[in-house]
Amino acid sequence: MSIEHHDLIHELPEYRDQIHSLKMNDAHFSRLFDEYHILTKQVERMETEAEPVTTHTEEELKIKRLHLKDQLFAMLRASA
Prior knowledge:
The protein is mostly helical and about 80 residues long. The chain has helices spanning about 10, 15-25, 25-45, 55-80.
């Protein structure tokens, strides 16, 4: 089974430069960015069954990741 990558650069490639800039200059964005990527790696491990969990747990993490992505996207749009 192929796992889809959800890192922020793949998800929002048109914001690549802004992502880099905000990571370097905005501590809040950087913290959210790191948390988003940690969750992404956890979900990918669950999807490959390298880290077996219940479907409910996996879905909760996906929802949390989506909320983080929404926050990051709002920050990117605001900085444009």
